[in-house]
Amino acid sequence: MAWTSVVQIVICVALLIWSLKYSVLPGIAVLVLMSPVQTAITKRLFALRKKSMVWTDKRNKAVNEVVGGIRVVKQFAWEQPYSERIAELRKKEMAFHRVRLYLRSLNLALAFATPTIATVLSFVTYALVGNELDAAVLFSSLSFFTLLRTPLQFLPIAWNAVVDAKNAADRIEKVFDAEIQRDQIVRDPNADNAVQLQDASFTWETAPSADTAETVAMLDALNLTIPRGAL
């Protein structure tokens, strides 16, 4: 879609130059000036997308933790602290999404308005230089400007899709390039016991909203031996 839009824009501009001669230059100037503006907006969208994904990952991780340990959350009545934590992460994520949507809307508005502005400037210039407002020339040129509207509208949409695809590809690339984690569990086939605990202590952390961060001992000095094949 992106490359076909570029080809269509080039062809329409060439036909406009043939139809309106040098009077089309102000309109082309508008198109040229809007191009770097839209490019800058696209780059900003790319940067905001990368920043928002950091908070998206944190929010998804928090939600997965709650869903995975929902029984513990319900048992200790941690719904409110976790809800506030997820809401705060979502708020930070939405701050970036809100700016992205504003910029995307601005980009689309420029794409819609640029052909109309270029048309008006070109026709005004064509009349001011003393040319006769011939219906054949005006309507054919208007058709070319109308044909410009579609590629100029789809070009920022295509660039937005490219931005999202680039971010997704970068994230997948990091996963594919990551080192394979080897199995850290040591298995001894000659061991007599399947499970053996000696003077073991198990603790449970306090709720995230608790005033103190100290841990509470749940099990202490635990000795347990389970022979192989006994379970």
UniProtKB/TrEMBL annotation:
Q: Give the chief site where it resides.
A: membrane
Note the Pfam families from the entry. ABC_membrane (PF00664)
Family annotation (InterPro entries): ABC1_TM_dom, ABC1_TM_sf, ABC_transporter_C-like
Which parts of the chain span the membrane according to its record?
6-34, 101-129
Molecular-function GO term, any one: ATP binding
The terms describing its cellular component in GO are:
membrane
**Residue ranges of domain ABC transmembrane type-1 in the record:** 2-164
Which keywords does this Swiss-Prot/TrEMBL entry list?
ATP-binding, Membrane, Nucleotide-binding, Transmembrane, Transmembrane helix, Transport
Bilayer topology: Multi-pass membrane protein
Q: Where in the cell is it found?
A: Membrane
Q: Which family does it belong to?
A: Belongs to the ABC transporter superfamily. ABCC family. Conjugate transporter (TC 3.A.1.208) subfamily.
- Under which name does UniProt file this protein? ABC transmembrane type-1 domain-containing protein
**Which species is this record about?**
Sporisorium scitamineum
Q: Taxonomic lineage of this organism?
A: Eukaryota, Fungi, Dikarya, Basidiomycota, Ustilaginomycotina
